[in-house]
Structure formats: structure tokens, C-alpha cells
Write a structure and sequence with these properties.
Elements: H1 2-7, H2 9-26, H3 32-54, E1 61-64, E2 75-78, H4 80-107, H5 110-132, H6 136-155, H7 161-191, H8 196-202, H9 210-227, H10 236-242, H11 245-271, H12 273-279, H13 282-302, H14 307-327, H15 331-362, H16 373-376, H17 378-392, H18 398-411, H19 415-443, H20 449-452, H21 459-477, H22 480-494
Antiparallel strand pairs: 1-2
Helix pairs in contact: 2-3, 2-5, 3-4, 3-5, 4-5, 4-11, 4-15, 4-21, 4-22, 5-6, 5-11, 6-7, 6-11, 7-9, 7-10, 8-11, 9-11, 10-11, 10-14, 11-12, 11-14, 11-15, 13-14, 13-19, 14-15, 14-19, 15-17, 15-18, 15-21, 15-22, 17-19, 17-21, 18-19, 18-21
Length: about 500
């Protein structure tokens, strides 16, 4: 029995949360939908961990769905790249659901909570499905599952602007998904296959056609919209700001990371780096957009009055760092970009969890309402400061490790590298500015009489917040796991044929 389960781990990775979703919707006993979702997320994380270990030595795990051998049937394919991403996404899901038990009760009425957890599980299943599938069309299918459930999750926000944010995200998400689908259609028309490994072997025969060049452009632009790469980012700030706290935590730490994976998978594995960065000018385009993302996102964050907006625009800048690593087009640079995916997910989850704690007590995320909160909610703000130091890139935090490896990769590039290092330094200085604005208000202002009576967040919210705060420090000191995993993933991509 155990051997049978081990053989079917790739299928379980998606099926567990997918089957859990209707159970959450049907079993509406108070507290039961959360319990089902939380237990399922733990099991999903366990599956991710076992898959990660199975391919750690560089093996590729192929699983034929329904016994139909690829490329005729749908294939689930696990390597060192997507196993690392799956471990991250499922781990964030566990922490987010641990936080959700108390947070959701305060932000979403009881009769809608079963729908909420059902949508959450569908979103998790969709994100994991994107990562594990070896079928290009299935990428689109799972992309839509995660997107549609994300729209539902964001719409649960208490502020009426959550509906506007949902609609804006829906429009942009639909445009991005449609462009990816058109690109896939062009590739299928030219090759007659949708299996990504099979596409990689058949595309070279038709690579010099305008159809394939057009398909490449559609897929890159569509993935960039999902990634929120500047200037295709307009859906992100409001989606993060007006969604329920736990939704912001989950999406900020996962959705754009999975979109980057889609970009990496198609560019390096399907089309190949020689075509993408040789015949097509993708390297220069990505570098230009990434630099603008770092500068514009960080600068916009400085002038926001809502902390969720601050962190949302910060995410746009942090996405720029990830793409800079990709655009350097070296194993070291790519490893730095993938490493920042992992590190940013941890510290951004920590920050949004801390904001969720404050929102639970204050019902507001405006900076002006944070006066003296460092004295009334010391544990919450201490976690926020740790996450903020990570964004800045202070030593002993995960943010420093990411930027250090980006600098090392940039130093290999000569004059271009010098410019890249300057951009990283400027982005870090801007991060000091927007993080300090919040710290100054929280610690160097006295709370009003009403705010002074507010107590620290409950333990149920502090525990997941401090899990991520401690992870921000732990993975900033003990870097073996994250650096080796990111380097192995980058080596796998750079060696893709």
C-alpha cells in the first residue's frame, strides 16, 4: 500500500487539494472546512517534500496520467526546479492556513467561510498543477483554475474596492491567459504536440518560422502579465491591498513566483536559451523591464499611505530583482534569481502576516494608524521589522543572501554588471526609505488614548507570523539548503535542451 502511494506521489500533489475543495464546500459544520483544508495542506507539503528528495540527485520523475505514455497522454514531470517551487508553495499554504483560522473568522462571515476554503484549496491545486505538469495545455488549464479561484478569494475583502480590484485582476489575468493560449495554439499547429519535453525536440525543426517567433512573444508577454513585471503590473497593488489578510499573504508569496516558473520553463526548457536569448532579444528586454521594476516599484512604495500598498509596490520591485538574475544569463545569475523567489516569499509572507495581525486589532492598514503600535503590539512589530530588514537586504536575513548572490553574478558581467550593482544598491536604499517610514511611526510616535488600549495579537496569529520571521533569519544564516536547491535548479535549466 505504501509503495503504491509513493508511486503515485505526483498525482497526489494535485489531487489532494483538488478533492479537498468540494469537501470544504459540502461539509459546512463550523470549523470543519478550515480543519479539512489545513490537514490537506500539511499532507500536500509532505508530498512536496518527498518529491523534492526523490529528484534531489538530478533524476527526472515522469508520471503518466491514466497509464497513457507521453507524449500521447498527459505527463506529470518532476525535476529539481519545479520540486523546489512546489516545496515553497505548499509550505506557504500550511502557514497561511494556520493563520487563517483566526483571521478568516474576523474578516469573513461564517456562512461564506466554506466557499472561501474551497476556493483556497482550488487555488493551491491550480498553482501546484502548473508546477508539476509536463503538458503545455495543462499549464493553461491549471493557470485558469488558480486565477478563477484567486478572483473569488480577493472578492471576499471587506472593503468594497475589493470588487474593483477583482475585476481589474480578472481583465488583466484573462488577457495574460489568452495570450499564453494563443501561443500554445501556434506551437501545436506547427508541431502537433503539447507535451513540453516533446515540444523541445520538435521545435528546432520549425524554429525559424514567424509562427514560432509569434508564439514565443505571446507566451512571454502573457507570463509577464501574470508575473506583474513592470509595466504589466497594474493588477497587483489593489489585488494585494483589498483582499482578506490571509489571501494577501498567500498570493503575495506564491502567485507571481509560479508565473516566473512558467516563464523560465518555456524560455529555457521548451524554446531553449539559444533561441530565446540568441535569435530573440529577450535578454535586453528583460533587463530593461527588470531595472524599471526595481526603480519604479521601490519609488512608488515610498509615497504610499496604506502599508499594504507599500508592500505591494515593494513586490513589484522585488520581482525586478528576480528577473535581473534571469537576464544575466549565467548559472550564477539564474541561481540568484531563483534564490530570491524563495527568500522573497518568506520575508513578504512575514510582512503581510504582521500586517494581518495589526488589521485584526485595528481594522486598518493605514500608516497614520500605526502611531505607537510598536509599544502596544511589540511582538507583531518586531516580526514586521525583521521582514523589513529582509527587504532592505541586511546581513543575517534572507534578503541579504539574495542580493549578495545577485552582486556576485553581476560582477561577472563587466560594465553591465556595474550598472546592475548600482541598481541593486539604489533599490536597497529606497527600501530603507519605505520601511523606515513605517518603523518611525510605529516606534517614535505615541499612540492615541483609544489605540493605547489595543492589545497584542492573539497567539493563533502570532505563531505563524513568527514562524516566517524566524525563517527570515534562519535561512539568512543557514543558507545551505536554499542556495544548493536554487543552484541545482539553475543548473537544470541552463542544461535544458
Amino acid at each position: 500500500m505504501m509503495n503504491l502511494l509513493l508511486d503515485d506521489l505526483p498525482a497526489l500533489q494535485v489531487m489532494l487539494p483538488l478533492l479537498c475543495a468540494p469537501l470544504c464546500f459540502i461539509l459546512r459544520i463550523k470549523g470543519l472546512p478550515w480543519l479539512i483544508a489545513f490537514v490537506t495542506s500539511i499532507l500536500t507539503f509532505a508530498v512536496s517534500f518527498m518529491l523534492f528528495n526523490q529528484v534531489a540527485d538530478g533524476d527526472i520523475l515522469s508520471y503518466a496520467m491514466g497509464g497513457w505514455a507521453p507524449p500521447w497522454g498527459i505527463e506529470y514531470r518532476v525535476d529539481r526546479l519545479n520540486s523546489f517551487f512546489m516545496l515553497l508553495i505548499s509550505g506557504i499554504g500550511v502557514v497561511a492556513l494556520l493563520f487563517a483560522r483566526k483571521s478568516v473568522d474576523s474578516e469573513i462571515i461564517a456562512c461564506k467561510q466554506s466557499i472561501f476554503y474551497s476556493a483556497f484549496m482550488l487555488c493551491l491545486a491550480g498553482l501546484l498543477g502548473i508546477l508539476i505538469t509536463g503538458d503545455a495545455f495543462n499549464v493553461f488549464v491549471f493557470l485558469e483554475i488558480s486565477a478563477l479561484s484567486s478572483y473569488v478569494l480577493i472578492s471576499f475583502g471587506q472593503d468594497r474596492r475589493a470588487l474593483t480590484a477583482t475585476f481589474q485582476y480578472l481583465i488583466m489575468g484573462t488577457i495574460g491567459a489568452t495570450m499564453i493560449l494563443i501561443g500554445l495554439g501556434f506551437m501545436y499547429m506547427m508541431t502537433g504536440t503539447l507535451n513540453m519535453a516533446d515540444l523541445a525536440t520538435r521545435l528546432p525543426e520549425v524554429m525559424n518560422t514567424n509562427t514560432i517567433r509569434t508564439a514565443f512573444a505571446f507566451i512571454v508577454i502573457g507570463a509577464s502579465i501574470k508575473l506583474a513585471l513592470f509595466p504589466l503590473h497594474i493588477w497587483l497593488p489593489n489585488a494585494y491591498s483589498y483582499a482578506p489578510s490571509v489571501v494577501t499573504v498567500f498570493l503575495a508569496a506564491t502567485s507571481t513566483k509560479v508565473a516566473l516558473y512558467v516563464l523560465l520553463r518555456f524560455v529555457f526548457t521548451v524554446f531553449g536559451a539559444e533561441f530565446a536569448f540568441g535569435e530573440m532579444p529577450l535578454q535586453h528586454i528583460l533587463m530593461f523591464m527588470a531595472v524599471l521594476a526595481v526603480l519604479t516599484g521601490s519609488l512608488c512604495a515610498v509615497f504610499q499611505t496604506n502599508i499594504k500598498h507599500v508592500l505591494a509596490y515593494s513586490s513589484i520591485g522585488q520581482i525586478g530583482y528576480m528577473v535581473i538574475g534571469v537576464a544575466l544569463l549565467t548559472t550564477t545569475g539564474l541561481a540568484a534569481g531563483i534564490l530570491h523567489v524563495f527568500n522573497h516569499a518568506i520575508m513578504k509572507a512575514c510582512l503581510f502576516l504582521a500586517i494581518g495581525c495589526v488589521y485584526y486589532r485595528h481594522g486598518s492598514a493605514r500608516i497614520e494608524d500605526f502611531k505607537g503600535i510598536g509599544k502596544t503590539m511589540p511582538w507583531t512589530m518586531a516580526a514586521f521589522v525583521i521582514g523589513g530588514l529582509g527587504l532592505i537586504g541586511m546581513p543575517l536575513t534572507v534578503g541579504f543572501i539574495s542580493k549578495w548572490y545577485l552582486v556576485i553574478a553581476a560582477m561577472e558581467q563587466g560594465a553591465i554588471g556595474a550598472v546592475t550593482i548600482s541598481i541593486i544598491l539604489i533599490g536597497s536604499l529606497l527600501a530603507v526609505a519605505y520601511v523606515w517610514r513605517i518603523v518611525e511611526v510605529a516606534y517614535f510616535n505615541e499612540p492615541t488614548k483609544e489605540k493605547a488600549k489595543i492589545k497584542e495579537a492573539p497567539l493563533a496569529l502570532l505563531i505563524p507570523t513568527w514562524i516566517m520571521a524566524l525563517a527570515t533569519i534562519y535561512f539568512g544564516i543557514k543558507t545551505d539548503f536554499s542556495v544548493i536547491a536554487a543552484t541545482n535548479a539553475a543548473t537544470t535549466l541552463m542544461g535544458a535542451k
